[in-house]
Design goal:
952 residues, alpha+beta, Immunoglobulin-like, Rossmann fold, 5-stranded antiparallel β-sheet, MSEP-CTERM, PID_CTERM
Length: 952
């Protein structure tokens, strides 16, 4: 304990936490400062100055003591304790002024009051412990009873005062001076309570040989075993209708059996007498060092709440359990110090310090290894489903994934407090940072992963699985107009589309306008504006998920903020959202389109002619990007390509998932035989693939029936992945044959069809968008690959097959096949690289971005590697891509929040989410943005430093 008076502790316990607290506050202040009223700004500056003066003064005093090789003095500890206690009280009192209710809470996801207590309380605790050491010299006799009596007197006096004030509440007249005196009394009495309580426990440990011989073992069991276990049980609600496995608690979720096991094991090791044999003492010391991480964790968790223990004792009676981590911490540190002193007589300083450091690192490393394993299995599963390498074979541990998903589901329960409810204090933050990159995994993706790897069947959707439509827009398009200018230098059209929207009814208080439109190949979105008040605000080109998150949070405010969002909904489909449209007001917005050919834009029933053939005709020759980049083919240029007619073949996708059995083999055989009895004209031999979690191709010429009979029935019927693999092979190796996909299953509802469509793979099926489902009725049912793939098609649509396609660049050596229609086309180059430098032509920049986007659709494994360069290229060109969005915002605070969220998203796995869905109401944010991890590291270093210094 006396080593706490060494000056080194000032920098570890005070300067470092205060610096981290300052950085966290500055991060929040930099977002919201433009929204703060003058009074709040003045308070922020005042408290910043006060904190800076205190931190600088504390560090200077510590440096002087270090230079003089003197322990920290009495005056230093007293001033440190009182000054920081006063600062905490004043910060708590002015919380509402520092963060007015007008500040949207999604912009300030952290609880500044809570983190103030979390980061400043170590300084106050250090001062109290330093005073205990100062007034408890080892060489002088000390008494336990007086200290315990004085400690008990504080809550007793509080109880008496509470009774008096509750009886005479109406007679009490509070003024400013009386309130200040009352607060001062409460603060001083609280500090006195902890001083005498810690001193009593410390004296017990000093007099261990005498005290333990009489009653010490009983007290040891009470402090190290009974109180911790009882505290865990009370926290989980064991005595209030809960149980040991309750998923939430008063101060956090400690329902795991490991908390109870470690509590008992820790207490047993601390109560064991020190063995005489040095090896056994070293082994016991290592065990105590390992479990010090457990003791320190709960000390850290309850440190901000220690001042509440006295009123909890007065009002509830069980509040003394909040003191258990503090008492255990004092006993544990003292025991380790005693072990170090004893072991130094038998072992070298290096051996003792090595055992100590290894023990202290064990629990953090075990937790980190466990979380890292969960991260690895989760990211492998995400890669397989959302960013797969179609040329690679996968095999994942489904049982480990199931356990990881269960933990993620538990961690994401709707409770955003740092230290209460269903979260594990600090550990949940660490888990979210290490496993989920400070983002989240939506319920939809969790369900999809369970369907793919665990074979869970998706819930039936009403109306034949029609996706739930978005709610109808409250606002409608009233007027649309367009102006087009031909840029001779770029040889492209620049068109501006202007929209005026208003509510269908003036009674709508705050409607939202939603619309979508389709762009032809060779057309890019180049700019966006939204009129806000009397000014026209230019949209920010931002990462797509970050922009959608910020838009959702602003809409959730329902405070008439003004965001507008323009983003891709599909390869060629663009969505526009505008909020709010209030009453009868007319909102105006406009966006820029860059296109090579004139075309007609259809938007909400209105048609706008963009460009004209008389001024600039469509190019008749292919237009290639720099290097081996993509090629743009106008409709005229495409018509000059040779026509070829390829032979079709059936590619059967056989359901081999966990929800099928071998007994279905005869039924499959009968259905397929009937279909094959009517062969495709000029068709090639059929091919077969077995589909469960993975897609297994049956070798050409081999019998599919034994393969299906022997296939393991595991996982779900991952049809989406199977279809994409078939289309990938067709697109990667252009051949004179093409697949006609036939899905063989008893019920399409069992299929894990994650995609609403396969429009991004359209270049792989130029002849026909139709695939078939061969169900129990033995009648092939047609479905579309291009849109709403779960719904069956009418016969008139299903019969549309293009007899011939265009071969690019020649029929002899085709690199791609294109549909023979009146639309232009963009053909990606081989091994398409991410565009790096602007070409000087925005349209050509857009062509390079579009070509890479199309190439990446077939090579999603490159997403993690190229996502950031691709988005940066979009920013440089000012061209929107499927990975970016235009977002118009009302104020600078919203823009700063967007930048912060964008940085977070770009640093995370591309398959993780920012919210449950784009219409989510309510923020999704991590408390203190991972800052607690820094505090944990600082605390661990702090404890290791103290014990190492004791060893010396």
């Amino acid at each position: 304990m006396h080593s706490l008076r060494k000056p080194h502790w000032v920098f570890l316990v005070s300067s470092l936490p205060v610096l981290l607290f300052t950085l966290l506050c500055y991060g929040e202040f930099s977002i919201i400062h433009t929204l703060l009223p003058p009074a709040s700004l003045a308070l922020w500056k005042l408290y910043g100055l006060a904190l800076g003066v205190l931190a600088l003064g504390t560090a200077l005093a510590g440096w002087l003591a270090l230079a003089r090789r003197q322990p920290l003095g009495l005056a230093f500890s007293v001033v440190q304790m009182l000054a920081y206690s006063l600062l905490l009280c004043m910060l708590t009192y002015h919380t509402d002024e520092l963060l007015p209710r007008s500040i949207p809470r999604w912009m300030v996801p952290t609880d500044l009051t809570l983190i103030a207590w979390t980061f400043i309380m170590p300084t106050v605790a250090h001062a109290v412990l330093g005073l205990v050491a100062r007034f408890t010299p080892d060489g002088q006799p000390q008494q336990v009873a007086p200290n315990l009596g004085l400690a008990v007197a504080v809550p007793g006096s509080w109880f008496i005062i509470y009774l008096v004030l509750s009886q005479a509440a109406s007679a009490v007249r509070w003024n400013g001076a009386a309130a200040v005196i009352m607060v001062a009394v409460l603060v001083l009495s609280t500090l006195s309570f902890f001083f005498f309580l810690v001193r009593a426990v410390y004296v017990m440990t000093l007099r261990k040989s005498e005290f333990w011989a009489k009653t010490g073992l009983v007290w040891g069991i009470i402090i190290t075993i009974v109180l911790p276990v009882l505290g865990l049980a009370v926290n989980s609600g064991l005595f209030f209708g809960g149980g040991f496995r309750s998923s939430s608690g008063i101060f956090g979720n400690f329902s795991s059996p490991w908390f109870y096991i470690l509590a008992v094991l820790n207490g047993v090791l601390l109560c064991l007498p020190g063995p005489g044999a040095a090896p056994l003492r070293l082994l016991l010391f290592f065990g105590r060092s390992v479990l010090f991480g457990y003791t320190f964790y709960f000390f850290l968790v309850f440190l901000p709440f220690l001042p509440l223990s006295i009123p909890a004792i007065v009002l509830i009676g069980l509040g003394f359990l909040m003191l258990a981590p503090l008492l255990l911490f004092v006993v544990h540190v003292r025991q380790l110090s005693e072990d170090v002193a004893a072991l130094r007589l038998a072992y070298s300083r290096g051996a003792v310090v090595g055992a100590l450091v290894a023990g202290l690192a064990t629990l953090p490393l075990v937790v980190t290894a466990d979380y890292w394993s969960q991260r690895r299995i989760l990211h492998q599963a995400l890669a397989y489903v959302y960013t797969p390498d179609y040329a690679q074979a996968y095999r994942l541990d489904s049982e480990a994934l199931a356990a990881t998903l269960g933990i993620i589901r538990h961690h994401k329960e709707r409770n955003w407090d740092l230290l209460t409810g269903s979260q594990q204090p600090y550990l949940s933050v660490y888990f979210n940072w290490l496993v989920l990159d400070n983002l989240m995994l939506s319920d939809q993706k969790m369900a999809e992963l369970e369907q793919v790897f665990l074979g869970k069947v998706a819930e039936a959707r009403p109306g034949g699985w029609v996706p739930t439509p978005s709610p109808p827009a409250e606002a409608v398009l009233q007027k649309a107009s367009a102006t087009s200018t031909y840029n001779a230098r770029e040889q492209a059209w620049v068109s501006w589309v202007s929209l005026e929207v208003a509510n269908a009814s003036s009674a709508v208080p705050d409607g939202e306008y939603r619309s979508s439109f389709t762009l032809p190949p060779g057309c890019w979105v180049g700019d966006y504006y939204l009129t806000i008040g009397n000014r026209e605000e230019r949209g920010i080109l931002a990462e797509k998920k970050a922009a959608a998150w910020v838009f959702a949070q602003i809409v959730n405010e329902r405070q008439a903020r003004d965001p507008g969002l323009l983003s891709y909904l599909g390869p060629d489909s663009v969505g526009l959202r505008l909020y709010p449209v209030i009453g009868s007001e007319v909102r105006r917005t406009r966006f820029q389109l860059l296109h090579k050919e004139p075309f007609t834009l259809r938007l909400d029933g209105q048609e706008l002619a963009l460009g004209n053939e008389q001024e600039a005709a469509a190019p008749a020759a292919p237009i290639a990007a720099a290097g081996s980049g993509p090629v743009y083919l106008s409709a005229r240029a495409k018509k000059r390509l040779p026509l070829v007619q390829r032979r079709p073949y059936y590619h059967f996708l056989l359901d081999a998932s966990a929800n099928t059995d071998v007994g279905q083999l005869p039924a499959y055989q009968a259905r397929m035989a009937r279909l094959l009895s009517q062969p495709l004209p000029g068709g090639a031999p059929p091919r077969y693939s077995l589909v469960n979690t993975y897609t297994t191709s049956v070798p050409a010429g081999a019998d599919w029936q034994p393969a299906l009979r022997q296939a393991p029935r595991t996982g779900g019927f991952y049809l989406s992945g199977a279809i994409r693999r078939v289309l990938f092979e067709a697109q990667q190796s252009p051949a004179p044959t093409y697949p006609v996909i036939v899905v063989v299953t008893d019920n399409l509802q069992k299929a894990v069809l994650l995609d609403a469509d396969f429009a991004d793979f359209a270049s792989a099926y130029p002849e026909s968008e139709v695939f078939y489902v061969l169900g129990a009725d033995e009648q092939p049912e047609a479905h579309s690959l291009r849109s709403r793939s779960r719904l069956s098609l009418p016969d008139s649509v299903a019969s549309r097959v293009t007899p011939a396609v265009r071969a690019w660049p020649s029929a002899a050596q085709p690199r791609a096949y294109l549909p023979d229609n009146e639309l232009a086309a963009v053909v990606p180059g081989p091994g398409q690289p991410v565009p790096t430098a602007p070409t000087g032509s925005r349209w050509l920049d857009g062509l390079g971005l579009r070509g890479y986007s199309q190439w990446q659709s077939f090579h999603p494994e490159s997403t993690e590697r190229n996502r950031v360069p691709f988005i940066q290229a979009s920013f440089r060109a000012g061209i929107m891509t499927p990975a970016t969005s235009f977002l118009a915002l009302e104020n600078e605070a919203q823009k700063a929040a967007l930048i912060r969220k964008q940085e977070q998203v770009l640093a995370a796995n591309a398959s993780l989410d920012t919210m449950e869905d784009t219409d989510q109401r309510g923020p999704v944010e991590t408390p203190i943005d991972g800052g607690v991890g820094l505090l944990l590291l600082a605390g661990a270093a702090l404890a290791a430093w103290h014990l190492r210094r004791t060893a010396s």
